[in-house]
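Exercise: predict the structure of this protein bound to nickel (II) ion.
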Amino acid sequence: MADIRIYGDPILRKNAGSITVFDDELKAFVKQMKEDMYKSDGVGLAAPQVGRSIRLSVVDPTGGEEEPYVLINPEIFYFSKEEEDYNEGCLSVPDITLQIKRPSVISVRAKDEMGNEYTLEKIEGLLARAIQHETDHLNGILFVDRASVVRRQLISGKLKKLAKSHHNKSKA
Ligand code: NI
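Solution:
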């Protein structure tokens, strides 16, 4: 199980690099990420969260009922005007959940670990939610950034504590 990077770790704020090589190392890494996602009970996991600043995430809103989606170099090319609130959390921001407003319906284009391009058209629900959350990770954005100002103020103390504990750990 890889170490999950926690709020305050600079890798979570980087713009991750595109993937151009689809080799065995990448396939092994994707397999490891799927396992880590299930072990941590997440509906998704992005590569920067396990210490690699590359444009890759795995998503499974079904809790293991279906084969997870592998999204490499994802591009969300449609966002509905209609938005909805949903209570989000993140393995990198432990013990914090917040209502986050996002478009209800999206379309996304991505590659799998074989390098095959595929498109998910007009998807909604938890799948659309998780793909937006994970794609944000590849752009250095965390869900707390998208909370309303009032909601963010309510958790600012907790966030400072998280960032500080990371800081102490990296000095140790
Ligand atoms: Ni997350």
